[in-house]
Amino acid sequence: MNLLIQEPGPQTTVQDPGRRGSLRVGIPPSGPMDREAFLLANRLVGNADDAATLECTLIGPRLEFGDARWVAVTGAAMHVTLDGTAMPGWAAFEVEPGKVLRLGPAASGVRAYIAVSGGIDTPPVLGSRSTYLRGQLGGHQGRALRKGDVLPLGPPSGGAPARVLGQFIPDYTQAPLARVVLGPQHDRFTDRGIAALFEAPYEMTPQSDRMGARLRGARVEHTRGHDIISDGVAWGGIQVVGDGQPIVLLADRQSTGGYTKIGTVCSFDIGRVCQVKPGQRLSFKQVTVAEAHELLRAHRDELDRAIHWEEAP
Amino acid sequence: MGIYAEPRFLPCGDQALSVELGDEIDREVNARVLALEYLIRQRQLGGVTETVPSYRSLLVYYDPLTVGWEELTRTLHALWREARPEILPPARTVAVPCCYEGELGFEVEAAAAKLGLPLDELVHLHADADYYVYFVGFTPGLPYMTGMPERLFIPRLEQPRLKTPPGSVSIGGIQCCIYSVESPGGFWVLGRTPLRLYDPSAADPILLRAGDHVRFTPITRAEYDAIAAAVADGTYVPRIETPRPHPPSRIA
């Protein structure tokens, strides 16, 4: 009923959908950086949407299974093998007791998700199993996994062969387009500054982490300084500091901040932003709140149609 | 300006909006923010998933497939009319022991020199003030407070530190803050509290809340060590006073 970590990879953490209700005391939600890949991994193995998975960063782990489970790997294109045999990504497969699952380095994308039927069953903290690394909270002892860690698994709920349909698997080698709603402080930027954000692509820098994606590109020009009276920082908020370079604030973001936020990346595009490797580019496109809500509806419908079951579950 | 005549609803993507009530760091504006949050929580407003108060605005996360922008802003506007400071429950006062000595208050002498105050007077002025917690955030459990006398208003450090120990009691501008986790910082560190403002191993990891009052109690290094040991053992009980809304009836 457990999972042995033979090799952890550089940053593998336990993540469920995240902690809700603690931002008001400064504790971020954490949870998966790419919610879509996370959700599909859980659904592939027959888990509830709130089951905990492993999030692997750039290089995957090596895991030994204590009992029989269904497993799916989604997100970044890491070469998956089971006792040396190549296995497909974005698909559910059965793993027998004692077998070793291994994920290689990401050929494209940054973060992969490993869902196991039954879910990772570490104790919830403040209502969530998600790991908040900086706050040493949740997940497995509040930290990234280490060699020799043993993770408890929940009772398996059964499983069936399933895969994500090809048209719903993102191509992480391409530069994504992230939809953005202007605000809350776009009035603190010049027209030229706002236009710059939407014109040329921005490059992901290596300083990016689970708190924020630090981007480099055309200067986003302020009208009168970058300081504001500190206020709440939304998920996907695009903060622009003095150097005019945007930072997209993510799952482990600070709850509040004193810098201007020109806009906010829409929830349905944040996961894709989190798969952009350092040195790769992404572009922004402006939408209204009403358009964003329509796009969100369409996006949820797509997620519901993305999985093809080989047999009726 | 201070308080706006009408709240501003500012979009923050497809799943959040900011309700901005004023344009100043002001107790009255902040009390209205906290009152609005209190009402949202008390009424369990449909579709609202999370709220984050700050100085003069409330960030409201919502599920747009449950409640749309028009309906949500209409409901919030109606609640805003009711969001008066008087509806808030009585504020707590939390006693925070603070050692201003030696390495724990590693910038207290520099701050005294900068302010042109004798060291003991700086400590006295700092510890004697009544601090108000506008909100808790940035890092887990960090209180944003004012309440210092004007003589302690001080420009922030020109070169921010890369690391500030947790528990560091510090001042910058008109504000006082207590670092809750090790983090960079631009405030002058006057002392340190042995209390944990954020304790990830505790059932309730956060000590202070928005709307609290904080009083610093100067302690010696020996007292600091004793309290720190009790905190580590889990035997220390912080002194928190909550005034009752009505005096208890006398039993004859």
Would you summarize the structure shown here?
In chain A, 14% of the residues lie in helices and 33% in strands. Chain A is an alpha+beta fold and 313 residues long.
Can you offer a commentary on this structure?
The complex is a heterodimer of chains A (about 325) and B (about 250). Chain A is of the alpha+beta class and about 325 residues long. Chain A folds into 2 domains: about 1-165, no CATH class; about 175-305, Cyclophilin (Beta Barrel). Chain A is built from 4 helices and 22 strands. In chain A, the strands form 5 sheets. Chain A has a 7-stranded mixed beta barrel. The radius of gyration of chain A is 20 Å and the shape is globular. The mean pLDDT of chain A is about 95. With about 250 residues, chain B is α+β, with helices and mostly antiparallel strands. Chain B folds into 2 domains: about 5-85, Gyrase A, domain 2 (2-Layer Sandwich); about 95-240, Cyclophilin-like (Cyclophilin). In chain B, strands 12-9-10-7-6-13-5-14 form an 8-stranded mixed sheet. In chain B, strands 1-2-4-3 form a 4-stranded antiparallel sheet, covered by helices on one side. In chain B, strands 8-11 form a two-stranded antiparallel ribbon. The mean pLDDT of chain B is about 95. Classes of the chains: A alpha+beta (about 325), B alpha+beta (about 250). At the A-B interface, β16, β20 and α4 of A face β2, β3 and β4 of B.
